[in-house]
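Suppose a colleague, Dr. K., hands you the sequence of a protein chain of 169 amino acids and asks what its three-dimensional shape might be. Before reaching for any lab equipment, you can write down a predicted structure in token form. Begin with the sequence itself:
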Amino acid sequence: MKKLILATLTFSSALFIAQESDEKGILGDYDGNGTKEYAYTKVSDCTDECDGKCETTIYFSDQKIKSFTISPANNGGLYNLGDLNEDGKDEVGFYPGWCTSCWHGFHVYTLSKTGWKPLVPSISTHCSQWEEEKFPIKKDPKKKGYVIITSSEWEDDDIRIKSTSVKVN
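The predicted structure, expressed as tokens, is then:
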């Protein structure tokens, strides 16, 4: 019985966190039409040492959804963040890969009538934040139309992880 309860809790909690892509891409309803499509990445002009333009383009299995490019990025983690701004469409999160440094911005994009645009400014993260499993963005359960942003900051000769609630609508 203990194992069943633990398995149920583990599975249920996984439904409430962002889903990272695998080799097939990440499934979501990015255009809000009720049909799920895959988002996936492709890197261009980038060596293993991060020489070149190092651009990562996010494509969609539904070719009616316009792709967009992030630079510099040597691939990275692609996430379905769910519908953060309650517009009926899943937002895309992207954590760019790079060859140096533990500091990376986490990008959050939403599809508007004119194309993909940032939902919030790039969120500063340090690898220690990821090691502590403090994901950069999630819906604020206490405030409709808000998200909680968790970021890393250099303060008093140390890395501090801070969270704040921000309006997105």
